[in-house]
Every structure is written in structure tokens, then in C-alpha cells.
């Protein structure tokens, strides 16, 4: 259960589906509620597929390029820290996607994979967290708990996107900015933990 909670808490903070709401609503403003919900549902399915795939094959990709897991955790920690700083200083909900990408995506029929699933929900930080959860000594139950943690993040992300219109009306821009700053502080702490734990592990090698 501890592994499940660790996976969920780390991923949910980094994925930050609340930050995806403004862009999601912008990209789907002409869609029917049914179409909007379909896009959110497909995006969350894609997110699970992306994160689970990187969880299982990430170590082999790192080994192929001669990159150690601690190197990845340090690099991932730096990216996560940057995302945390952006969330703390943002006034737009914390989701980084260029205006050009938004303009291009508005004219696309399907935005569920790009840019919604990747990079908005399962970006480099989430992928780094997912890869770092893999260890050679994990048991079948551990794998199941980690995948369940990823699935729960996807379920909650879908629920947040499903109710995004109501949440935006309830929270307003001010509420979303306050929530983004809270999430940013948590994300920043996760990034620091990644770097510190990896440096300690490297010093013991």
C-alpha cells in the first residue's frame, strides 16, 4: 500500500490535471459535452499507456544509452523543480503549452493524444517519475500497486477534466492560481527529493 500511495502522490502532483483545465476548455470550446468527455477519456487512457510503457521499458532504454537510473532521477528532478517554480510563479494555471501549439490544436479533430495526453498530462516529469519507480527487485504485487497508482491518477484526471467547466466557474482564475501555487510547492519538493536521494545514492557507490 505504501508503494501505491507513493506512486499516486508523486504522479498526481507532477501531472497536475488542474493545470490542464484552462487549455482543455480552450481546445474543446466548440465541442459538444459528449465530444469533450470523449477527448478527456481517451487522453487519460493514453496517459496510462504512456506511463506504464515507460515504467516497463524505461530502464532498458537507459541501459542502451548508458544512463544510470540516478542520472535520470537527477535530470528528472531538475525538470520537476523547474515545473514547480513555473507553477509557483504562473498566472495561467501552470500548464506550459505555446500559443502556437494551442492555435494549431484548435483546428484538429482529435486532441486526446497530442497535446492533451502528451505533453500536458504525461510530460517529461511524469515520465521520469514513472521510470524511476521501476526496480529490479520488485514483485508482482509491487508492479500491480504501481500500475494501480498510475490508473488512479488517470481516473482522477478524467474526473477533473469531466467537471472542468463547473470547477472553473466555482474556483475562478484566482482559485486556480492559488491551487497551482500549492501544487507547485509540492512538485518542487518532489524534485528536490529526487536530486538529494540520487546524490546520496551516488556517493555510496
Automatic annotation (TrEMBL):
Topology with respect to the bilayer: Multi-pass membrane protein
Domain of life of the native organism: Bacteria
InterPro entries documented for this protein: Multi_antbiot-R_MarC
Keyword Ion transport: no
Keywords: Cell membrane, Membrane, Transmembrane, Transmembrane helix
Family of the protein in this entry: Belongs to the UPF0056 (MarC) family.
Pfam families named in the record: MarC (PF01914)
Subcellular location: Cell membrane
TM regions (residue ranges): 46-65, 143-162, 182-203
Name listed for the protein in its UniProt record: UPF0056 membrane protein
Amino acid at each position: 500500500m505504501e508503494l501505491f500511495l507513493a506512486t499516486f502522490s508523486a504522479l498526481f502532483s507532477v501531472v497536475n490535471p488542474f493545470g490542464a483545465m484552462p487549455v482543455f476548455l480552450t481546445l474543446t470550446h466548440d465541442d459538444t459535452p459528449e465530444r469533450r468527455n470523449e477527448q478527456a477519456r481517451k487522453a487519460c487512457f493514453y496517459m496510462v499507456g504512456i506511463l506504464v510503457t515507460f515504467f516497463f521499458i524505461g530502464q532498458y532504454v537507459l541501459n542502451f544509452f548508458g544512463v544510470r537510473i540516478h542520472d535520470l532521477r537527477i535530470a528528472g528532478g531538475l525538470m520537476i523543480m523547474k515545473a514547480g517554480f513555473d507553477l509557483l510563479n504562473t498566472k495561467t494555471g501552470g500548464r506550459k503549452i505555446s500559443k502556437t501549439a494551442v492555435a494549431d490544436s484548435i483546428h484538429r479533430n482529435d486532441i486526446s493524444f497530442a497535446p492533451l495526453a502528451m505533453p500536458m498530462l504525461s510530460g517529461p516529469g511524469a515520465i521520469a517519475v514513472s521510470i524511476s519507480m521501476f526496480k529490479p527487485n520488485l514483485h508482482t504485487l509491487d508492479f500491480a500497486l504501481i500500475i494501480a497508482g498510475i490508473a488512479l491518477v488517470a481516473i482522477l484526471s478524467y474526473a477533473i477534466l469531466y467537471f472542468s467547466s463547473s470547477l472553473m466557474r466555482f474556483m475562478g482564475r484566482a482559485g486556480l492560481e492559488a491551487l497551482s501555487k500549492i501544487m507547485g510547492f509540492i512538485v518542487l519538493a518532489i524534485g528536490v527529493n529526487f536530486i538529494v536521494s540520487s546524490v546520496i545514492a551516488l556517493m555510496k557507490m
